[in-house]
TrEMBL record:
UniProtKB keywords: Signal
Coiled-coil segments on the chain, per record: none
Pfam families: DsrE
Tree of life domain: Bacteria
Protein name in UniProt: Uncharacterized protein
Organism, as annotated: Chitinophaga japonensis
Length: 154
């Protein structure tokens, strides 16, 4: 019986200690306000390879969120590169002209894969006139990642 009482006492103590540790962890987590932007510059490239409107809108929203993050103010360079189905967002007549133009006006590089244009037999004139052209979307991602850019696929 003595051993059982001692075991129960130890168990109760460990639960109490665990509860205190858990509460400290929860409080520490509540107090966390995000990583500190200690670098002089940050770079990210967003990959757009689908014509799914929800994904296109998410990519644009994600880029705008990064642009308005106060930790990144004046420190961030962003690029949106489209290929495959993502090209549809850059075609004249798409519902994204104003949003894409606004990104360019905020300093975001908005670029289209030339390989996709060739494969789909599209001309540059079919794209909004403010869209840049890169030789290949995959090449752009590879080069940017090798340069230290974060690659983001919304």
């Amino acid at each position: 019986m003595k051993h059982l009482s001692l075991a129960l006492l130890c168990l109760a103590f460990s639960f109490g200690a665990h509860a205190q540790t858990t509460e400290k962890a929860l409080e520490r987590n509540r107090a966390f306000s995000g990583a500190t932007a200690t670098q002089a510059a940050y770079h990210a490239i967003y990959q757009l390879d689908t014509n799914n409107p929800k994904i296109i809108e998410k990519a644009i929203r994600n880029i705008n969120n990064a642009l308005t993050d106060p930790r990144l103010a004046g420190k961030v360079t962003l690029e949106l590169v489209a290929f495959s189905g993502g090209t549809d967002a850059f075609l004249k007549g798409s519902p994204y002209e104003a949003a894409l133009k606004a990104l360019v006006e905020k300093g975001v590089i908005v670029a289209q894969c030339n390989n996709t244009l060739k494969e789909r037999k599209l001309s540059r004139e079919q794209l909004y006139d403010f869209i840049a052209i890169v030789p290949s979307g995959n090449g752009e991602l590879i080069i940017r990642q090798a340069q230290g850019w974060s690659v983001i696929k919304p």
